[in-house]
Specification:
Blueprint lengths: L2 H12 L13 H15 L10 H14 L3 E5 L5 H13 L2 E6 L2 H13 L6 E5 L2 H4 L7 E6 L6 H8 L3 E9 L14 H7 L3 E6 L3 E6 L1
Parallel strand pairs: 1-2, 1-4, 2-3, 4-5
Antiparallel strand pairs: 5-7, 6-7
Helix pairs in contact: 2-4, 3-4
The protein binds S-adenosylmethionine.
Length: 211
């Protein structure tokens, strides 16, 4: 895919301000049944660097527990984590903005979001996050970073000013042990910030609450 196309798409959408207001799903029982059926059918078939189910469930629970409503994901892939987050946001009245640079995975994700019944809660963008993220107005109250690992610190620097107080920054494949970390100095960066309370769970999912 031509980079020029990705950049121009990014600039176009970057002009948009904060995400439109959402309402909660009118029938949560029905929604739960549809998403559960979709996830059951697809269990074991997520092969595009997708998060494991335990991490998806944790992202869902964090959003529901804290009633987050303005979520950003960097790295959609085929949409597994996006489905868990959007499922939660359908209950809180929120919306997920998710970005991926790969057209094939983006298209698959969009199809998955529709099949799961969650498309109305997701704004999926085909874009280079390096270009798009700095242009997003925010604010966000939940962010999940799961794209190119050596850019995590750059992404965090860009989104943290747009993260509400009480909001949560999460990231995948984070290790406190520098030798094993794919994400460079990201762990040192987030744990060094006095504005964040950070823990790493499930062997690599970092969760940082903003004071
Ligand atoms: C680990 S996968 C994401 C998995 C997804 N969160 C899930 O659990 O279903 C990483 C994704 O980041 C995307 N990516 C890598 N660099 C990117 C960039 N600069 N901008 C946007 N997406 C990027 C890749 O195309 C890939 O699909």
């Amino acid at each position: 895919m031509a980079r020029a196309f990705v950049v121009s798409l990014s600039l176009l959408v970057g002009a948009m301000a904060s995400l439109p207001a959402q309402t909660t799903h009118p029938n949560v029982k029905e929604l739960d049944a549809q998403v559960t059926r979709f996830l059951d059918e697809r269990r074991g078939s997520w092969r595009d660097m997708n998060v494991p189910e335990a991490d998806g469930r944790l992202l869902h629970d964090l959003i529901v527990e804290h009633k987050y409503r303005q979520a950003l994901e960097i790295g959609t892939s085929t949409g597994h984590s996006g489905i868990w987050m959007a499922w939660a946001l359908a209950k809180t009245g929120g919306r997920l903005l998710t970005i991926d640079i790969d057209e094939g995975r983006y298209r698959e994700a969009v199809a998955n979001f529709k099949a799961a019944g969650l498309a109305p809660y997701i704004d999926a963008r085909l874009a280079d996050a390096h270009d798009l993220v700095p242009t997003l107005a925010g604010p966000f109250d939940f962010v999940f970073i799961d794209a190119d690992k050596d850019w995590y610190t750059t992404y965090a620097r860009s989104v943290l000013p747009k993260l509400r107080s009480g909001g949560c920054l999460t990231a995948h494949n984070v290790s406190p042990r520098r030798r094993w970390s794919m994400t460079g100095d990201f762990y040192e960066y987030i744990t060094g910030l006095p504005t964040l309370d950070t823990k790493v769970v499930n062997g690599g999912l970092s969760i940082s609450f903003k004071r």
